[in-house]
Structures are given as C-alpha cells and as structure tokens.
C-alpha cells in the first residue's frame, strides 16, 4: 500500500494557481525529489501537504486516511513533518530546547533526544547554545532534528542546502543518509541536481505548478530533467533555406 496518494491537488495564492492538478504516490521508504525552476510551486506543494497552506481542490490520502480538513497539527500527529525553507527555529531557545519542544507534537517511535543527537553529531557540542548563534549548517541540522523528534512517517524537506557552504551541505546530507537508513519516507526539494540524483529514488519535475516529468532516478538523465525544468523541448533543427 502507498504511504501517500495525492489526487489532483490544487493550491492558490489569491488568483495565482501555484499547484495545478498534481497527482502522485509514494511507497513507504521511497525518496522522492521535487525539482523545478524558481516559482514552479515546490514550496507551495510541500506546505499544502503539511496543512500549512490550504488546498483549493483535490485530495491527499496519507496511510489510507483522507486528510481533507486536517490541520497542520493533526497531520504532524499522524506522522508528517516539514523542514521549511529558512529553518524557522526558535532563535532565543537553546538547541536542546528546540528539539525537546517538537517532541510533544509528534508520535512515539525510534526518534528521541538521544537518537536524534546521534544522527546529527554536529549538534552534540552545541546543545546548550542558542539556536540563533549557530552557523547555517548547524541550524539546518537542528531543523532536521526537530522534525525527527516528531517521529515522522513522511519527512518533507524544503531546500535544506540553500545558502550553506559546500562543507555544511555535505554535513546535512551525511545526516540525511543516517535518517534514510531508518527507512524514513521523504520528499525533498533540492536545487542541486547532482545531489538530487545521488539521493533520490524518483524525481518529479514541476513547471508552473504542473508535473511535467516524472521517473525513476536511474532511468533519467540530468539533461532530460534540465529540459523539463525550464520547459525547453528539444527542437528539431530549422529547415535550411533554399
Ligand atoms: N505568499 C505568497 N503570495 C503570493 N504568491 C506567492 C506566495 N508564495 C508563492 N507565491 C507564488 O506562487 C508560485 C509558486 O511559488 P513557490 O514558492 O511554491 O515555488 P517554488 O518552486 O518553491 O520556488 P522557489 O524555488 O523560488 O522557492 C510563484 O509564482 C510564487 O511567486
């Protein structure tokens, strides 16, 4: 059985339709990457799944349960966790407090304070530091840790490498490798196609809110994804003038 089934999902910002008839399914343990140019609708789609942004149409079924009318809090309790773009930590709280406060929103499971810190060892020396005093990579690790504390069955990760140094990005992806070893199902929004290809089982490309390409990572090339990314079609050569 699928963990997630999205049927014809629409989402709007006022008059602008940011997500248009998106349908996709996810099996337990799958790693799906959402790619697309700026403004393609990736963030809106993740936020709509998490219940932070309202759907304008369609249905989301999570583990057989229709989530229509479920609040973000109810979705978190069922096992959906979003790591938002920009991290949104509680800057005046310590790292440990940021992690602990998330536990109350979630489910019971393998993730607890000690296992999260073990998966994110860069946090160990920083547990008593204020979140606002951390580097970007460390803050990103806290944001991932905070999501893990809810014991998610589906982890939604929005641009986790945005604005980080190459070393910090590597640290975040090393942590994610430890997370997926726990069979966590996830949807990842990532601009770096090299990372996407190395990490995801399946890629879905959005353009202007619609799915324009979808396939197993091993069956796609980066060139094919880039073509869809910007809505380019390979054009036949122009006929030669006589
Ligand atoms: N709060 C908002 N108010 C109005 N329009 C918005 C809002 N947020 C996003 N949009 C618009 O909705 C569309 C989809 O934006 P969204 O942020 O979902 O795309 P994205 O693929 O995540 O882009 P990026 O990679 O730049 O984050 C864009 O046209 C964007 O301008």
UniProtKB/TrEMBL annotation:
Pfam families: ABC_tran
Similarity section: Belongs to the ABC transporter superfamily.
Full protein name: ABC transporter ATP-binding protein
GO-annotated molecular function: ATP binding; ATP hydrolysis activity; branched-chain amino acid transmembrane transporter activity
UniProtKB keywords: Amino-acid transport, ATP-binding, Cell membrane, Membrane, Nucleotide-binding, Transport
Residues in ABC transporter domain copies: 1-233
Organism: Ideonella livida
Superkingdom field: Bacteria
